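Hi all, posting the design record for the shared folder.

TITLE: backbone redesign
STEP: 1 of 1
STRUCTURE INPUT:
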C-alpha cells in the first residue's frame, strides 16, 4: 500500500483493534523472497494493536529435504498417509520454517514464541486405509495462546500436533489454522498461498458466502482449483463455525496482505459468514414498518417521502433488518433500464438503534447483492448523508451518471442532492 493510503488504513483500526487475526502461511510462501515483506506487514498489524497468530505449513520444505536425503515422502500436505520416515522429514522441515520465521520476526523487532498448543490424535483408518502418523486436531490450548497474545507475543504454530503421551503427528496446516481461529474467536482467518486466490473453472472468485462455497464443494464437478480445495473447505467451515471472514490470497505479492485487509476490494478471495441473517426481503405487511421507520427522516428532509402505493409497486426492491423479529432498519436496491447499474436507496435506521453498525451492514448487504446480480455500478443520491457513502468507497459524480429514468426523477425533485457512484467491476 502507498503512504497516501494511510487514511484508508486508519478507518479500519477501531474495527480491528484488540481483535485476533490467524494468518496461515504455506511453506512455499515462507520460502519466497517476499516473505520478509509479509512479516513487515505483520509488524504493521501488530503496531495497530491487532493480535496475530501465525500458523505455517512446510510442504515445500519437506519436499526439498526429501530430495536432499534421496527419500520419497508418503505425503506432503498432512492430509494423506504419514509414515514414520515422512514424519521425521516433516518435523525437520517444520522446525526449519519455524526457526526462519522467528529469526525474521526478530529482525522486525517482534517478540514471538514457538508453542505446542495443539493437542492431536491419529486420524486413524479412513476407507480401509491406516493414515499412520497423520493427525487430527483434538484441542487448542487457548489459555496458552491468550497469555502469549496478552504479553504482546506472536505465537508461531507449526503443522505438528502432540498427544500428551510423547507422540507427534503431522497436521494439515489449513486445518490447524482453522481450529486455532475458531478456538480464539478470531475475526479473520487468512490463508497465504502462491496462487492469486480461490479459482473455479479457471476464474478467480473475488467474494463468496461460506454456505455457497460449501454447496459448491459438495457437488461432483465443483471446478475448484485442486491445490486450493483444502483451503476452500476450511475457509467455508470456519465461516459456518463463527469466523466472520476468511481470506485466500497470494502471499508472494508485495504489500498484498495489507491491501487485502485494509480495502473493500482486496487482492484475493474473501469468504464471508452469513452475517446478514437478520436481513430479509420486505413483505407486504412491512409497508407500514417502512413508513414508520422513515417518518422522521422524511420530516427532516433526509429522505423523499414515498407513498404506500409507491413502496408496494417496488416492494421486491426493499429489505428489512430485524432484531428479535423487530424491524429496526430498511434499505432498497432499485434497478433501472440501465441493466448494469442500480441504486442503493431509502437506507434508514431507527434512532434507537443508531451507531451500532446496522447502516454499514445494510450498505454492505446491498453491495454484495448487487454484485451477485451482475450489477457493475452502484449509485446513491443523498442530500445530507453523503459522507456515509464516501467512507464506503463511493465517489461524487454528476447527475449525468444516473440512468435516464432516475435522472428525470432527480431533476424533477429540485433537491440538488449529491450523486455518489461506486464501481463494482472486479479489479
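Okay, here is what came back for every position:
SEQUENCE:
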Amino acid at each position: 500500500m502507498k503512504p497516501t493510503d494511510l487514511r484508508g488504513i486508519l478507518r479500519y483500526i477501531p474495527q480491528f483493534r484488540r481483535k485476533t487475526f490467524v494468518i496461515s502461511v504455506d511453506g512455499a510462501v515462507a520460502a519466497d523472497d517476499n516473505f520478509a515483506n509479509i512479516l513487515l506487514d505483520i509488524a504493521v498489524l501488530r503496531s495497530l494493536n491487532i493480535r496475530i497468530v501465525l500458523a505455517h505449513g512446510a510442504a515445500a520444505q519437506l519436499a526439498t529435504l526429501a530430495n536432499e536425503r534421496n527419500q520419497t515422502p508418503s505425503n506432503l500436505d498432512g492430509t494423506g498417509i504419514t509414515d514414520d520416515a515422512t514424519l521425521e522429514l516433516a518435523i525437520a522441515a517444520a522446525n526449519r520454517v519455524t526457526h526462519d520465521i522467528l529469526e525474521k520476526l526478530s529482525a522486525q523487532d517482534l517478540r514471538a514464541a514457538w508453542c505446542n498448543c495443539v493437542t492431536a490424535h491419529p486420524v486413524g483408518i479412513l476407507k480401509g486405509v491406516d493414515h499412520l502418523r497423520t493427525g487430527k486436531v483434538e484441542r487448542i490450548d487457548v489459555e496458552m495462546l491468550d497469555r502469549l497474545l496478552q504479553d504482546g507475543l506472536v505465537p508461531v504454530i507449526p503443522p505438528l500436533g502432540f498427544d500428551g503421551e510423547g507422540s507427534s503427528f503431522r497436521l494439515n496446516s489449513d486445518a490447524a489454522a482453522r481450529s486455532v481461529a475458531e478456538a480464539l474467536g478470531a475475526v479473520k482467518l487468512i490463508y497465504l498461498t502462491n496462487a492469486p486466490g480461490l479459482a473455479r473453472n479457471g476464474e478467480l472468485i473475488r467474494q463468496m458466502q461460506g454456505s455457497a462455497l460449501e454447496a459448491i464443494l459438495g457437488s461432483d464437478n465443483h471446478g475448484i482449483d485442486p491445490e486450493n480445495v483444502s483451503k476452500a473447505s476450511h475457509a467455508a467451515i470456519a465461516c459456518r463455525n463463527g469466523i466472520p471472514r476468511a481470506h485466500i490470497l497470494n502471499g508472494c505479492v508485495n504489500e498484498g496482505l495489507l491491501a487485502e485487509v485494509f480495502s473493500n476490494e482486496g487482492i484475493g478471495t474473501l469468504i464471508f459468514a452469513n452475517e446478514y441473517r437478520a436481513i430479509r426481503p420486505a413483505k407486504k405487511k412491512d409497508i407500514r414498518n417502512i413508513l414508520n421507520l422513515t417518518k422522521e427522516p422524511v420530516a427532516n428532509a433526509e429522505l423523499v417521502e414515498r407513498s404506500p402505493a409507491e413502496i408496494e409497486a417496488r416492494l421486491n426492491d426493499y429489505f428489512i433488518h430485524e432484531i428479535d423479529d423487530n424491524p429496526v432498519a430498511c434499505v432498497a436496491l432499485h434497478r433501472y433500464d440501465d441493466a448494469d447499474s442500480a441504486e442503493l436507496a431509502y437506507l434508514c435506521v431507527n434512532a434507537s438503534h443508531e451507531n451500532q453498525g446496522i447502516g454499514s451492514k445494510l450498505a454492505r448487504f446491498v453491495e454484495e447483492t448487487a454484485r451477485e446480480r451482475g450489477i457493475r455500478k452502484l449509485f446513491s443520491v443523498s442530500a445530507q448523508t453523503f459522507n456515509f457513502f464516501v467512507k464506503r468507497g463511493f465517489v461524487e459524480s454528476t447527475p449525468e451518471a444516473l440512468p435516464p429514468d432516475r435522472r428525470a426523477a432527480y431533476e424533477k425533485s429540485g433537491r440538488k442532492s449529491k450523486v455518489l457512484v461506486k464501481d463494482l467491476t472486479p479489479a
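COMMENT: The chain has two domains: 3-272, 279-423.
Let me know if anyone wants the other runs.
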